[in-house]
Every structure is written in structure tokens, then in C-alpha cells.
Amino acid sequence: MIQNLDDTDRRRLLAFICSFAWADAEVQQDERNYISRLVNALGLGEGDQEQVDAWLQYPPDPEEVDPQEVPLEHRQLILAAARDMIESDGIIYESEAETLALLEQLLGQNAPA
Length: 113
Fold this sequence. Notes:
Layout: H1 7-21, H2 29-42, H3 46-57, H4 75-87, H5 94-107
Helix pairs in contact: 1-2, 1-3, 1-4, 4-5
């Protein structure tokens, strides 16, 4: 559950979600709204909000979204949030679907369709 994540895992989750917002090379307003709701649900502080705002201007660096750094117990959560984010604007671009499939492979998970 999202509320059980520690600060490091919450930031990691947000980095992944922001990187998915960039999968089609443009962050849509609906995607921004989804991320904003997620930030609020996580109850992050001002510094974390500033980091998310920066990620919405420029995607996170690849080392910030290393799938091998994701603890096993959080992999399904990240995949579900990534799926929700790419579906948030009502359009799933091929690049988004490909990025999600790659993440599923890298995490060794088969997320439900």
C-alpha cells in the first residue's frame, strides 16, 4: 500500500511515474493532475514537491529510475501506478505501452492487463 512506503520509496515511485509521463515526449495536463493527486496521497513535503515539479519540466535521470533498485515488495505497486498514469489522459500511446512492457520485463513481473 502506498501509505506504507518510506520516503526513499515514495520518491522512487514518483520518479518512475514522472518518467512514464515523459514516455510520449510530452507531459499532458491529465498526467500532471494524476501526479499531483499521487503527491497529495503520499503526503510529501515541499522539497519533494519541488523535485516532482523539476521532473515534470525534465524527465528524471536514468539512474533515478533503475528497476533493479525497486524492492520486490513494491514492484506491483509501481507497475500499477505507472499503468494508471499512462491511462490518465485517456490515450495510451505506443511509446507508453512499450515503456510499460519493458518495465514489466525488467521488474520480472506480469502486471494484470
